[in-house]
Amino acid sequence: MSSKEVVSKRWQSGENGLTIERLPAKESFKSKAYAALKEAITHMNIYGSSEPMLLDERDISERLGASRTPIREAVAMLEQEGLLRAVPRRGIMVVRRSKAEIVEMIEAWAALESMAARLATQRASDEAIAELRTLFKKFDLSRIERDRCDEYSSANIAFHQALIRLSGSSLLAAMTENLFFHVRAIRHRTIFEMDRAQRSASDHLEIIVALEARDADRAERLVRDHTLRLAEHVENHVDLD
Amino acid sequence: MSSKEVVSKRWQSGENGLTIERLPAKESFKSKAYAALKEAITHMNIYGSSEPMLLDERDISERLGASRTPIREAVAMLEQEGLLRAVPRRGIMVVRRSKAEIVEMIEAWAALESMAARLATQRASDEAIAELRTLFKKFDLSRIERDRCDEYSSANIAFHQALIRLSGSSLLAAMTENLFFHVRAIRHRTIFEMDRAQRSASDHLEIIVALEARDADRAERLVRDHTLRLAEHVENHVDLD
DNA sequence: TCCGAAAAATTGGCATACCAAATACCAACA
DNA sequence: TGTTGGTATTTGGTATGCCAATTTTTCGGA
Question: How high is the pLDDT of residue B139?
Fold first, then answer.
C-alpha cells in the first residue's frame, strides 16, 4: 500500500475512533468579515428607522483593514443566510422582514420547538430535564423587573434554546437559532410585553412538568401553543411596515 | 405636477395596475456559478463512492468561462448552505451527511410539514385542498411501477411539497425544500422501498381526508407520524457510513 | 530499495486594477 | 426658473496576479 493511500484513508474517517479535525488555523479574513458583519447587524436596530440601511463594500473593507474580496465573500454568505440583500448599483442592504414574514418565522419556530419537545421526552435524560428546571428557577421570568425588556427576552430565549438542546438534535438547534436571530431583532417593537411574562413563566413550568412526565403529546402541544400564541400576538399587536 | 413626479409615482407602485419590476438584469456570473454548481451537486451521486468528492476552483472557473472570483463567491454561498465545505490546501468538497444527520433532517421535515398541515386546515381553501386530491389521483403512488424508484420519489416529494404550499407559508416551503435536497440525495440508498408505497398512498389519502375535514390535530398527527416513520426507517435500514 | 530532505508544483486567500452600469452633478438652453 | 443633455463620479462585478501554506515530487545518500 502506497503512502498516499494511507494518508487518504486517515482523512476519510476515523475508524480508529480518532477523528482529526483540522485546527481552526488562523481565521481567514472571510470568516472575520462574516463574524464582524453579523455582529454589526445583530446590534443594529433594524426596525428603528424606515430608511433602507445601506452598507458600502469599500467602506467596510477599509474599516476591517482588508480588501473587498473577502468582504464580498462574507456578504455573499450573509445574503444566502437572508440577512443581507445586494442590489447592483444600489448597495448592500440589511433585509427588513415584513410582519407576515416574522409571523411565519415564529410559526416555523413553533413547529421545530414542539418537535424538539417531543423528542426530548423520548431521549433526554432525567438529569438534563432537571437542569431545565434549575434554569427556570434561576431566571424565573416573573422576577425580572418589568422594565428590563432585553433581559426578559434573553432569559426567555435561553429557556427555549435549552429546551431545544434537550432534543439532542443539533439541526433543530441550528435552525431555530437562525429564526431567533430575526425574531429577536423586533423585540424592541414587539415589546414582548411584560404582562405576558407571568403567562410565559407558568407556560414554561407546565412544559417542564410535561417533559418530566415524559408525555410527548402534551409537551409538544404545550410548546406549540405557547409559541403560536406569540405568533398571534405579533400578528395582532405589532406594527412593522 | 412635474414630469419627474409622475415617473417617480409610476415606479413606486402601480395604482394604475401596472407594476413595473426592475428587470432581472443579466444574471451575474456569481448567480450563474451558484446555479451551475448546485445543479451539478444535485445530479451527483454523492453517496456513490466513499472517496471524498473534490472540486477545484480553477478547473470550475475554466469550465464556466469565468474567473475565480465569482466562483469563489458562489462556493461561499453553497458552503453557507451546507452543501460544500472548503478546506484550505485540500480542496472544496461536497459534504456527505451522516445517517444521524439525515435522520435529524427528516425529523425537522416532519416538524415543519406537520405544522404546515395544521395551518392548512385553517387557511387553505376548499379548492386548494381539492387540487391536492387531484394530484393524489394523478400520481397515485401505488400505480407506479415497482422499479421506477426515482419516479416514486419524485411523486412522493411532489405530494409533500403541494401539501406544504397549502399552509400559505413560503418560509415553511423554503425550509423544507432545503431539507428535501439532502434527503433526496440518498434516495438511491434508502431504496425508499416500494413496499412502502402502498402504505404511503393510504397515508396520503388519510391526510387529505383530515385536511378536508379541517381537523387540525389529526392532520398534524398524521403528517408527523408519516414522516417520522420514514426517519425511523432510515435509522434502521439505511447504511451510509 | 528505502528514507528523508529539499525543491517544485498546487492551491486557496487576498489585493489590486479595470470595466460597465447607474447615479449625481452641472452647465447650457428654453 | 425649470428642463435637458452630457459629463463626472460612484459602485458593484470581474479578471488577474501575487503570496504563503501545503503537498507532491525529486533526488542523493544510507
Answer: 66
